[in-house]
């Protein structure tokens, strides 16, 4: 007893950022969160638990780079094109994918649908349900109209058991819902603790790599939007997907935050309906569906989400304030960006917003982070302030600088194609973008403006 005491050591792991400390501290020195350090027992190497069923990589030999096939890894291509898009073109065998998102957003639903499709087309799929009973999964499957012979549900929380089933069944895909509920019997700490989650995930991912089985892990998300548990989980997997959406909107965005096999910032757009998550093939059309063409305060921005152009409606309302300090509220845009744009409008264009409350909303629950939407936001605010509608046939793009100048943004061609597709006959863009000699789609007139003031002259209908 005394001997093991002296051999085992104790460390402290931060549950927020995963950093390791040698002594307990109230505040993590790395991420500055309070009360996040958890005690973890470190065992001496020879006493390390040997993971059940997991072979060591003894037989792996170094390979000359010249002999490694260059034609990419063959993927499991899904019929669901939105899922394919965020995964970078399908599921890579042996990859680890972490799927995060708020509770109730639809993680289990979309993964069960994906599992059913893979079971139908490719082989045995194992769905490990650590949070819900097999009856609950059964009810969801019934609702979704799924009854695949080759889709197996395993209500199990002990990782050693799960590993054994995977070894025996050799499925083509494993889904673990959720990793926070998985328990490692050999571990010393409680289920859900940092070391439990990390060790269980590492065992599952290693087995996946060994047998070339893709492993999808569902992870919970904290209030601030990061995936709960050790951040280390995000480093362990190849792909991190985040399912987002507004509670009162049916749209769900599946965003790739990290992807070792494809580009990040790709978004898949879905709608949560009675029959589960259905892909939205023409998102721009959906976002513009309820637009009132000649209403003041509404402008159409052409933004990019990953490699996909998206047309979204920006709505602004400026109204006389009853407060000593006017309010600025942004829904779907960064508040600092809004403050900057109202300041530029006041100082450079002479639109005095100092006694105006300004509200901006991106319709449909979208969040726009790229500055390419600046001009549309500024135009929408000016349109509301002056009670003049924005010309209904104009799509708007461009960044606004502090001097009121318009600055170029990337991918003009792609953005314009999307605008043409949706029937816009004119586009308003920073003038410099037109000088680049890019071939632009026909059927749309591109109007170049040098400053925000020039742009307002074109966009607002008097
Ligand atoms: P769920 O996939 O359980 O969310 P998560 O796993 O992220 O917690 O989804 C739960 C919500 O989705 C629930 O409010 C019911 C709704 N839902 C539908 O609207 N349609 C459906 O077909 C299904 C299965 C669920
Ligand atoms: Mg769930």
Q: Could you characterize what this model shows?
A:
The protein has 462 residues and is of the alpha/beta class. Helix content is 27%, strand content 25%. It has twelve helices and 21 strands. The protein has helices at residues 2-7, 81-87, 107-121, 134-144, 159-169, 194-211, 232-236, 283-288, 335-349, 374-386, 412-421, 452-459; strands at 9-14, 20-21, 37-42, 96-101, 125-129, 151-154, 173-177, 215-220, 239-245, 251-259, 267-273, 276-279, 298-305, 308-320, 328-331, 356-362, 394-396, 399-400, 406-407, 426-430, 445-449. The strands form four sheets. It has a nine-stranded mixed beta sheet with strand order 6-5-7-8-4-9-10-11-12, sandwiched between helices. Strands 15-16-14-13-17-20-21 form a seven-stranded mixed beta sheet. A three-stranded antiparallel beta sheet has the order 2-1-3. A hairpin with a 2-residue loop joins strand 13 and strand 14 (308-320). The structure holds thymidine-5'-diphosphate and magnesium ion.
């Amino acid at each position: 007893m005394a001997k093991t005491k002296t051999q085992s050591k104790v460390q402290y792991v931060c549950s927020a950022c995963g950093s390791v400390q040698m002594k307990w501290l109230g505040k993590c020195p790395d991420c500055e969160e309070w009360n996040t350090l958890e005690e973890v027992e470190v065992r001496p190497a020879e006493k390390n638990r040997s993971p059940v069923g997991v072979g060591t990589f003894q037989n792996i030999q170094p390979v000359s780079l010249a002999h490694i096939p260059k034609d990419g890894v063959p993927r499991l291509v899904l019929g669901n094109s939105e899922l394919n898009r965020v995964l970078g073109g399908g599921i890579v065998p042996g990859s680890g994918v972490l799927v995060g998102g708020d509770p109730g957003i639809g993680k289990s639903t979309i993964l069960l649908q994906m599992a059913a499709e893979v079971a139908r087309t490719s082989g045995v799929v194992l769905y490990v349900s650590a949070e819900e009973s097999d009856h609950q999964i059964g009810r969801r499957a019934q609702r979704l109209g799924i009854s695949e012979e080759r889709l197996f549900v395993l209500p199990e929380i002990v990782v050693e058991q799960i590993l054994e089933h995977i070894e025996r069944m050799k499925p083509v895909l494993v889904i673990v819902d959720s990793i926070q509920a998985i328990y490692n019997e050999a571990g010393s700490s409680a289920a859900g603790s940092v070391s439990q989650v990390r060790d269980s995930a590492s065992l599952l991912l290693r087995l996946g790599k060994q047998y070339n089985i893709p492993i999808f892990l569902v992870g919970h998300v904290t209030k601030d939007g990061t995936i709960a548990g050790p951040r280390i989980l995000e480093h362990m997997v190849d792909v991190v997907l985040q399912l987002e959406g507004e509670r009162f909107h049916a749209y769900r965005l599946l965003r790739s935050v990290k992807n070792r096999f494809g580009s990040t910032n790709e978004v898949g757009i879905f709608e949560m309906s009675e029959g589960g998550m259905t892909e939205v093939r023409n998102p721009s059309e959906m976002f513009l569906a309820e637009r009132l063409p000649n209403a003041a305060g509404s402008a159409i921005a052409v933004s990019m989400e990953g490699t996909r152009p998206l047309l979204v409606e920006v709505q602004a309302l400026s109204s006389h304030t009853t407060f000593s300090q006017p309010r600025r509220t942004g829904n779907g845009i960064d508040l600092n960006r809004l403050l900057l744009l109202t300041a530029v409008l006041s100082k450079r264009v002479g639109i005095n917003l100092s006694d105006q409350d300004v509200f901006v909303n991106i319709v449909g629950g979208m969040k726009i982070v790229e500055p390419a939407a600046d001009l549309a936001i500024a135009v929408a605010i000016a349109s509301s302030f002056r009670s003049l509608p924005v010309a209904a046939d104009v799509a708007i793009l461009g960044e606004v600088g502090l001097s009121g100048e318009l600055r170029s943004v990337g991918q003009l061609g792609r953005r314009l194609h999307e605008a043409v597709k949706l029937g816009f006959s004119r586009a308003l863009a920073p003038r410099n973008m037109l000088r680049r000699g890019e071939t632009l789609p026909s059927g749309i007139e591109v109007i170049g403006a040098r400053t925000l003031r020039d742009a307002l002259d074109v966009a607002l209908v008097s």
